[in-house]
Design goal:
Layout: E1 2-3, H1 4-32, H2 37-54, H3 60-74, H4 79-94, E2 99-100, H5 102-120, H6 130-138, H7 144-156, H8 181-200
Antiparallel strand pairs: 1-2
Helix pairs in contact: 1-2, 1-3, 1-8, 2-3, 3-4, 4-5, 5-6, 6-7, 6-8, 7-8
Bound molecules: adenosine-5'-diphosphate and magnesium ion (MG).
Magnesium ion binds near residues 29, 33, 37 and 77.
Length: about 200
């Protein structure tokens, strides 16, 4: 079972990876967007860290609901409401249990990704975060590491895609040839989850 501490560690690890990769995320966003994806997520995840430190949130669901709410209220860009919705919907799916199984988390994340697709109106192939999230969550039935690897592969596969949603879509054909920043950060989120699971499982 995964408890609130596991989910707090996941959010912390995601923040650390975002910090490490912020310049790269902004660079990717400068090619096909407005060069703020790294700073957006830096702001968001540092607010998440502060919110979690100040709040007792003792269940997995409560941790993700708080993190999601914080991302929505602190990130100005499109990615804030989208990641916020991912975490909020996932947290809602976990309910009020003190501990959740890996299978429960997989199902909740699957619903969370569905909520992102519904909010943003995007589908895989549109060159968005969904190109990492959808294959990533599908591979959760194998392992957390497989999910992280599939998300990373999905992010790389956005390079030749034509953007159909978000700011990058304004570029039309010129969006081709660049990796999507949101797909790249989505892979980081799943890498953080795999890292925290490896640590907890003694791998
Ligand atoms: P903004 O585009 O408002 O500047 P960010 O730069 O923080 O916001 O995030 C951009 C990322 O958000 C994109 O790379 C893409 O992955 C994701 N994104 C944008 N619009 C959508 C959408 N409709 N559905 C899913 N993801 C989206
Ligand atoms: Mg941007």
């Amino acid at each position: 079972m995964r408890d609130a501490v596991f989910f707090r560690r996941w959010m912390t690890a995601a923040g650390v990876l975002v910090e490490r990769e912020a310049d790269r995320l902004t660079e990717l966003d400068s090619a096909i967007g407005d060069a703020d994806h790294g700073s957006n997520l830096l702001r968001g995840f540092s607010a998440v860290r502060e919110a979690l430190a100040a709040d007792p949130a003792t269940t997995p669901g409560a941790v993700l609901l708080l993190a999601g709410r914080t991302l929505i209220s602190t990130v100005g860009g499109a990615s804030g409401p989208l990641y916020g919705t991912l975490l909020r919907r996932t947290g809602k799916g976990l309910g009020e249990a003190a501990g959740v199984s890996d299978d429960e988390l997989r199902k909740a994340l699957y619903a969370g990704v569905g909520a992102v697709a519904q909010l943003g109106g995007a589908a895989p192939g549109d060159k968005t975060m969904l190109d990492a999230l959808v294959p990533g969550v599908a591979a959760l039935s194998t392992s957390y590491r497989a999910a992280a690897d599939s998300a990373e592969k999905g992010a790389r596969a956005t390079v030749p895609m034509l953007a159909r949603k978000g700011r990058a879509s304004y570029l039309g054909e010129r969006s081709i040839g660049h990796q999507d920043p949101g797909a790249t950060s989505a892979a980081l989120l799943l890498a953080a989850l795999a890292d925290v699971a490896d640590t907890e499982d003694g791998r």
